[in-house]
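Figure 3 (text version): structure tokens given as input.
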């Protein structure tokens, strides 16, 4: 999904992707405007089975991560993996890759392969043709031998110091309605007709890759309306209301995630996904709340933030408006949720990464200080707060378990990027003694 922020957008709400979601196998851990005519009144929606305020963050099982190889500091001004400093990593068959983790990763890798071979790799590490043999083999490789697939076709590389930080995101499930009615009065907007995105690279080579969003006022291009202005009615007739939510706190967090499921009054489900953003900078309200002493011990999680916002509705609304960024949605009619590659993202294996440091579609192995984040991940998504080497946002799917894990995910350890065998030799990476665990 075109996600704007990432998990410490959850745990970074504390600081500062949709779906072929594949749930974990049994036994594995683990195992959702302008005011118009009032619609007919209905009973206020019942809460969904566990609200975040009542659902504690999942307590992680601690682990000792494998250490990265000693590496010099990354040079200043580096913007891609190719310039960050590369070291050969451990042999794939020495990594603690589980059978189920390898099976999930192989399935997700197959999905990514067509796009992986077509797109230009912004990291400077690979070419589309580099992936051809591995992708061809993946098409018919038996799932029961999934660990052997990665050992046969890939080598690992440590980017910069290899020190990884992982957060989590999920697909929210919230109460919503297609029409406005009693209890469903928070508008979910589509893209405004006066929102303009400008490619600055068309004006200057120095600005290639940079874009801004705004609107035309008189003869000037000005920033688009911020969250507070939008909530005050600034969109007027400029944006469609595609649905109505029951809870402003839930829709705020759904904007952070970028997609979600609306549980409708008739029992149906409407999936919505990211369609655009107002171009304003994102502010992580969790850090803001911590700095003001509003979050006590044990509240520094998505669940703790949501609880405070609900318990202090007026102050909470003002805090949310301090995040001027605002996301617009569209209804998803296909498999959704989709990652930045245009493919469905999969719970427990898809991840968001910076495409300048991880080729989109590539496998990444994380060895972290909590067991649920440790394993093979496939980089199928991006996020505005997911920047730099070894910064990963893990996707956990939908449901209460996914919400609990993602809401409390904050893991540190080591990351190794998996590249097609022969890549390091082509890049002339010095073959030092590989760091075997």
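Below: residues designed for each position.
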């Amino acid at each position: 999904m075109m996600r704007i922020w990432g998990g410490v957008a959850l745990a970074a709400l504390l600081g500062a992707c949709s779906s072929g979601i594949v749930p974990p196998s049994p036994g594995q851990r683990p195992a959702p405007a302008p005011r118009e005519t009032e619609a007919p009144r209905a009973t206020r929606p019942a809460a969904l089975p566990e609200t975040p305020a009542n659902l504690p963050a999942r307590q992680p099982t601690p682990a000792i991560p494998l250490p990265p190889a000693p590496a010099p500091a990354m040079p200043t001004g580096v913007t891609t993996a190719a310039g960050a400093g590369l070291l050969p990593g451990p042999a794939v068959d020495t990594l603690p890759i589980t059978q189920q983790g390898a099976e999930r990763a192989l399935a997700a890798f197959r999905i990514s392969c067509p796009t992986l071979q077509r797109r230009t790799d912004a990291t400077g590490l690979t070419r589309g043709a580099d992936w051809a043999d591995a992708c061809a083999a993946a098409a018919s490789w038996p799932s029961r031998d999934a660990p052997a697939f990665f050992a046969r076709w890939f080598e690992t590389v440590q980017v910069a110091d290899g020190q990884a930080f992982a957060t989590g995101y999920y697909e929210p499930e919230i109460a919503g309605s297609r029409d406005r009615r009693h209890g469903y009065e928070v508008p979910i907007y589509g893209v405004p007709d006066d929102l303009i995105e400008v490619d600055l690279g068309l004006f200057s080579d120095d600005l290639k890759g940079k874009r801004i969003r705004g609107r035309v006022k008189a003869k000037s291009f000005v920033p688009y309306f911020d969250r507070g202005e939008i909530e005050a009615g600034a969109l007027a007739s400029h944006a469609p209301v595609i649905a109505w939510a029951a809870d402003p706190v839930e829709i705020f967090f759904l904007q952070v995630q970028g997609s979600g499921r609306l549980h409708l009054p008739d029992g149906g489900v409407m999936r919505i996904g990211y369609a655009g953003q107002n171009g304003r900078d994102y502010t992580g309200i969790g850090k803001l709340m911590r700095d003001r002493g509003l979050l006590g011990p044990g509240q520094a999680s998505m669940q703790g933030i949501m609880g405070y916002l609900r318990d202090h509705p007026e102050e909470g609304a003002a805090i949310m408006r301090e995040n001027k960024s605002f996301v617009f949605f569209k209804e998803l009619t296909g498999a959704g949720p989709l990652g930045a590659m245009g493919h469905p993202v999969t719970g427990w294996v898809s991840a968001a990464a910076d495409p300048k440091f991880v080729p989109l579609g590539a496998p990444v192995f994380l060895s972290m200080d909590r067991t649920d984040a440790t394993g093979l991940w496939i980089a199928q998504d991006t996020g505005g707060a997911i920047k730099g080497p070894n910064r990963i946002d893990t996707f956990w799917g939908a449901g209460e378990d996914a919400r609990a894990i993602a809401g409390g995910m904050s893991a540190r350890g080591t990351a190794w990027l998996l590249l097609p065998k022969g890549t390091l030799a082509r890049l002339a990476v010095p073959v030092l003694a590989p760091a075997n665990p």
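Residues 94 and 436 are 7 Å apart (CA to CA).
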